[in-house]
Amino acid sequence: MRAVWGGFALGVVLLQQQTKLPGWLGGVGLFLLINALAGCAVWGLRGHGWRRRSGWCAVWCAAAGVGFGYAAWRAHERLALSLPLDFEGRPVEVSGAIRGLPIHDAMGARFLFEVEATQPPLAGFPHTIQLSWIARDAPLPQLDPGARWRLPVRLKRPHGNANFGVRDAEAGWLARDIRARGYVSAPAAAVRLPGTAQGLSAWVNRWRAALRHRINTVLDDAPHRGIVTALAIGAQDGIREADWQLLRTTGTSHLVAISGMHIGLAAAWAGWLAGSLWRRWVFGGKSAPLLWPTSSVMVLAGVLFAAAHAALAGFNVPAQRALWMLGVAALALLSGRQMALSVVLAWALGLVLLIDPWAVVTAGFWLSFGAVAAILLALSGRPRELVPRAEYAPETEMHADSSVTGEASANRVHTAWAFWRDAWQRLQTNLRSGFQVQLAVTVALAPLTIVWFSQVPLLGLAANAFAIPWVSVLVTPLVLLGVILPAPLDALAWRAAHGLLEWLMQALQLVAQPAWTLWRLPQPDGWALAAAGVGVLWCLAPRGWPLRWAAPLTWLPLLFPVNPVPPAGAFRLTALDIGQGSAILVETARHTLLFDAGPGPESTHAGERIVVPFLQARGTYALDALVISHADSDHAGGAPAVLDNIRVRQLLAALVPRNPLWARARQRGAQTVPCAAGQRWQWDGVEFAMLWPDPGPLSGRPNAHSCVLRISTASTAQTPGNAALLTGDLEAPGERGLLAREPHALQAQVLLVPHHGSKTSSTEPFLDAIGPSIAVFQVGYRNRFRHPHPFVWARYQARQIELTRSDEDGAVRIDVTREGLALERYRTTHQRYWMGR
């Protein structure tokens, strides 16, 4: 079964890497190939030696084909339900029920909605949509899980930002079966319908909502209330950002989720309690264990409690993995069969992917299964250290003779000493074994942590050494006790759990104070990750494996990556896809500059959600300059997130003196300089020139004094060089002001289109003076400003300019050298079958 489920998983993973789904012809070919491989497998398994080994190889390949075909079938089925293109942005009335737990924030609430009917009726409409209910003039109504509503909405297809090194949001929405997203367009017209959604899922979600409300009432404004809620019902939206940052720094963020470890411990406690009660139960004058074995009762109780706990967690992937492992192991025990733990893990892997083939695009899948696999590898082939058990049973016969009294006393002392020595030796053995297991998990998950989070907590092993038992043995049982107990006893348990969490967070704060405790690394390429994976298997191999000491050498490409940078005299522009806003990274051989930082918390949180993760994935932990073109939030809103997470040496901005960004930058140690025409500098043979605004006090609208930066390669007698012009939100009056000075100084082969292609910018004389070969439009998907304006777009097309736009191409990367330009569109080079669907 290991080969079958392993091959099946490989096929599912391969399908999720495809640029498009196979059609009916590909399906027929795959079916014939699977049958041929099955025939080879039957032939091979009947033989011996190389023939049998080839048979198992055929089994593995056939299983991979089945996994590929199954995942493709599920994908075709899911993508068949999509919002019609003609109804994007148009008013639609949907009727249905709220699914899951709504998430509340300062703006309002977000929730999933199970659609039952639409008006007008639409064929092939998605079953599940994601909605936002923005609190404007009236307070939000009570949004209960399972409540039925009729809502006027405006929807878009699930289009996410597509950037190098940043998680694919569209893949996550597809995995959650979210096929349209939008907002309640007319809250006053929303109508609560009678009745509620029925079924086990709706009942569980109402239970989870009631528990969250009770915890919020009991703990009120307690600082770590969100962690208690997360441990109780798996909802992590209430955890403070400061807590998240501390947990990530110390490598303990896995402890605030209802993980497989928590479910396994809860199942063990439930089984122990059920067994204790069952042994003392009497039915009709007969002891309960005589009617049904206690071991069977313990197993069944543990699995049932694990299922309830997984339901509270919302059946996330780690919870599913633990539940299926417990279920398979329970079936084996109840049937009297012996099953290797690796086979149990393989069954859990297969069942998870049968239910959700898109689990492989989530971090939880890889971290959860990777941790268990590492534990099995660490324990395989290693002899257990056996501690001889001392004989400390009391004497069965006692002599009345006083002559033996002294000898009996000596025996008792010796027996007591042997007992405590035995206990101490066993404790040492268990601690040594626990350390080996934790070390194995830390080593195995380090490459995955770098892939998903671009960091390695150096003190993660030490922090987890006390955090894991603290949370698992003390905090989690109290939280679960609060779930079970009635009010007001539940409040006592939750307050005690919160008090223990306060002590834990204080201890972690002490551990995380030095800056060196967190090692940030750029996102690795495929070769570095593959080499690190081989090194992990090599390192965790059983004792006696040759050259195990050399395993760390395979991690060198991962831990000390070579970051490709432009050569001297050239530069690279990366225009990020951040929705409606602007953020461009400029890289030379040894310097980096960020021009604008995208929207902030007032809008889409793109600064902390996209810009900072992109920089960290690139290995950019310090900026030589941060240029904020002007004060509009879609350009400056993400700057605080950049200043808080990335070292900035200099801030250049067109901001009024009272803007708080100046003080924030100085607090972070950055030099602050207002950008003004005439500023010039050179980095690595690349020239930078600020062309706008004029020196002096800023006046007028922010767009009028937007910074304009020209970047150019050095020209020679043979090659004039190439340049890029970054214009911010400059409008027609500013364009005319630049033209009146030195129109020839505006020439550039790459142009960041002014003001996102608004009709107030990109005048024809301005475009003619620049003469660009490539124009970059940074615009949001179906943005409310309707940028770019059709007339402006046509103006660029008429000049035969290569056009890119972030809502269609994602992020774009342009390498500018003296010899020419090289353009890369993210959605072209990283295409996946769900993009644009």
List keywords for this structure.
837 residues; alpha/beta; OB fold (Dihydrolipoamide Acetyltransferase, E2P); 8-stranded mixed sheet; 7-stranded mixed sheet; 27 helices; 27 strands; 16% strand
Major sheet details? 8 strands, mixed
Mean pLDDT: 88
* Poorly predicted tracts of residues: 383-404
Distance between the termini: 35 Å
Radius of gyration, in angstroms, nearest whole number = 31 Å
User: Looking at the structure, what is the overall shape?
Assistant: globular
Question: What is this entry, summarized?
Answer:
This protein is an alpha/beta fold.
Show the helix and strand layout.
Elements: H1 2-15, H2 24-45, H3 50-79, E1 91-104, E2 108-119, E3 128-134, E4 147-156, H4 169-175, E5 181-184, E6 191-196, H5 200-219, H6 225-233, H7 241-249, H8 260-279, E7 282-283, E8 286-287, H9 288-291, H10 294-312, H11 317-334, H12 341-355, H13 363-379, H14 405-453, E9 455-457, H15 460-484, H16 489-512, E10 518-520, H17 526-539, H18 556-559, E11 571-575, E12 584-587, E13 592-595, H19 606-618, E14 622-623, E15 625-628, H20 633-636, H21 639-645, E16 647-648, E17 650-653, H22 660-667, E18 671-674, E19 680-683, E20 686-692, E21 708-713, E22 723-726, H23 732-741, E23 750-752, H24 764-770, E24 774-777, H25 790-798, E25 802-805, H26 806-809, E26 812-816, E27 821-825, H27 826-829
Parallel strand pairs: 3-5, 13-15, 14-16, 15-17, 17-18, 22-23, 23-24, 24-25
Antiparallel strand pairs: 1-2, 1-4, 2-3, 4-5, 4-6, 7-8, 9-10, 11-12, 11-26, 12-13, 19-20, 20-21, 21-22, 26-27
